[in-house]
Amino acid sequence: MSNNFSKLGLADFLMNALNELGYEVPTQIQEQTIPAIINGDDVLALAQTGTGKTAGFALPILQNIDVKLKAPQAIIIAPTRELAIQVAEAFHRYAKDLPDFNVTPIYGGQDYSIQLRALKRGAHVVVGTPGRIQDHLRRGTLKTNHLKTLVLDEADEMLNMGFIDDIEWILEQIPHPHQTALFSATMHNSIKKIAERFLHHPKKIQIEAKTVTVDAIAQSYIRVEYRRKLEVLTRYLEVEEMQAAIIFVRTKNESSELTEKLQARGLAAAALNGDIDQSMRKKVVDQLKSGHLDIVVATDVAARGIDVERITHVINFDIPTNTESYIHRIGRTGRAGREGKALSFITSREQRLLRDIERAINKRIEEVQPPSLEEIHKSRKNQLKTKIINAIEQENYLKPYYEIIDSLVTKDNCEIRDVAAALAYLSEQDNPLADYETLLAQAKAEKRQRREQGRDFQRKPEARHDGRKRNRSRNKHEDKSFTDKKRKKSKGSRDGFAPKPRKQNNNKDKPSFNSEGKRKKLSRKPRD
After folding, report:
1. Inter-axis angle of helices 53-63 and 12-21, to 10 degrees?
2. Distance CA 182, CA 42 (A)
3. What are the phi and psi torsion angles at 432 (to 5°)?
4. What H or E segment, with its residue span, contains residue 344?
């Protein structure tokens, strides 16, 4: 079998690993970075997530490793521990035929003693987060005197997370000469300054964003009111055929709250946010990979580094406020040439953000409508039919039940059609199917109830701080006939609306004031 990686000058042990992994054709970023890093050049690469950049720097680093030298020869800095673990695992896969090779991930949340033992044992490659690498450099437990290559992976994300000062400090501590490779999805001014200061005549590589965001991922959006987001999301998850999905929200609290609401609706969902410890994060990701979990509700930072083939859908429950985050989010699906879908919920106030994203990816995002009640009903029936057909194919598991069915039909005189329908009902008992007309009537009743609740809320008078209620709220909703009667009744009296002032030149009708400038009370004669 021919392999185009052979043209890049890779060693035999790497070619064997690539063949076993099924890698045949290098991506654009790999074609350009692998020869440059093998030659020892500095690299400034502008490429999105999912373009294969990990192999783009891992393979040439492994080619240049001297396994006899038990010291760090390459340091890779990643924004999150998830990404650090993922990169370390990639090194293990590519170096399966490289004897005595060691790679060590170091990150916050892991015991220092574990990392210290790994570093003392002689790690050839160290992959870590900025804070933990900085700590080990300060302690003197991470030696750099034999360092050949330093890689900044997803530099723009590290900038967004506030690591720019840590990165500069680390780069200042690394002795020269060494090779530096910087990878970023976007090119901020701060990243340009770092490149100008720390990279020496770098080979500049740029992979267009459309390679990731347009060709591999079908992008769409739904216009939705904020209060209806959960309803529309639930409908979409019921109708859409998917293996696994990541739902993005803006805050940790929203991640936990939305997860609880989805679980209450019978959906297998888990939260990923900054409050979840490392062991639970690993458990969630493992469940997602194995198929025991289908939905993860995550924040931007918590989702970094997740690369799960089962993820077919990304849903922006809250659209990100910048285009870079959007690109990183939807990059969780459609990776390595696989197809994926990205759906965004857009409120009326977020139209500008949508336009900014479309300009950034140079593509018009398609607007779609929320699934209708009829579509949901049809989808659920099809899903149940598929479930039944799959069960029928498992003949060995059905044999114990044949006797029960035969007894129901022959001894209890049950119709086979009724038995089948009853079993289907039992399988869907938590969320039973109803005929379409009943569902439609229920939907109309719920809509009418929401409308009435909204009207009642508007009519409710506002409370003053002193406990009294304002008349203004009541007057605002009075009908015209009642107001006219009240106006007629109040004419010439002090009740209700005050009468129009009479045009008289009588001084006694003019208000008088006392010496302190306060208005005096006027006495009136009682009417007959």
Report:
1. 150
2. 8
3. -65, 150
4. strand 340-346
Q: What is the dihedral of CA 492, 493, 494, 496, to 10 degrees?
A: -90
**At 167, which helix (H) or strand (E)?**
helix 164-173
Which residues make beta-bridge pairs with 344?
Answer: 221, 316
3-state secondary structure of 383: helix
In angstroms, rounded to a whole number, what is the distance separating the alpha carbons of residues 337 and 378? 31
**Buried residues in 251-263 as b, exposed as e (16+ CB within 10 A):** ebebbbebbeebe
Q: How far apart are CA 141 and CA 431, in angstroms?
A: 57
Please, are residues 346 and 223 in contact by the beta-carbon 8 Å criterion?
A: yes
Q: Alpha-carbon distance 242 to 361, whole Å? A: 25
Q: Which residue pairs from 112-118 have beta carbons closer than 8 angstroms and sit at least 24 positions apart in sequence?
A: 115/141, 116/141
**CATH number of this structure's domain 212-371, picked from the four choices 3.40.720.10, 3.40.50.40, 3.40.50.300, 3.90.600.10:** 3.40.50.300
Domain range summary for the chain, segments of one domain joined by +? 4-207, 212-371, 375-427
Nearest of 394, 384, 445, 444 to residue 420 by alpha carbon: 384
Residue spans of alpha helices (H) in 44-152: 53-63, 81-94, 112-122, 130-139
| Distance between CA atoms of residues 276 and 506, nearest Å | 81
Please classify residue 331 by burial: count the beta carbons closer than 10 Å to its beta carbon, then call 0-12 exposed, 13-18 middle and 19+ buried.
buried
Residues 186-210, mean pLDDT to the nearest whole number: 86
Average pLDDT over residues 25-54: 88
- Between CA 242 and CA 223 the distance in angstroms is 22
What SS3 string covers 289-313? Answer: HHCCCCEEEECCCCCCCCCCCCEEE
Which of 82, 125, 76 is closest to 246 using CA atoms?
82
Residues 6 or more apart whose Cβ sits within 8 Å of residue 398: 391, 392
- C-alpha torsion sign, points 4, 55, 18, 282: negative
Nearest one of 297, 304, 239 to 84, comparing CA atoms: 304
User: Average pLDDT of 239-265?
Assistant: 91
283-312 per-position pLDDT tens digit: 998 899 898 999 999 988 788 768 888 899
Q: Does pTM surpass 0.90?
A: no
* DSSP of 484-496: HHHHHHHTTSSSS
Q: What residue has token string 């409050």?
A: 275
**Separation in Å, CA 445 to CA 230, 435, 450, 452, 454:** 19, 16, 9, 10, 14
Bridge partners, residue 159, by sequence = none
Report whether pLDDT(201) > 90.
Answer: yes
**Domain 4-207: CATH superfamily, name plus number:** P-loop containing nucleotide triphosphate hydrolases (3.40.50.300)
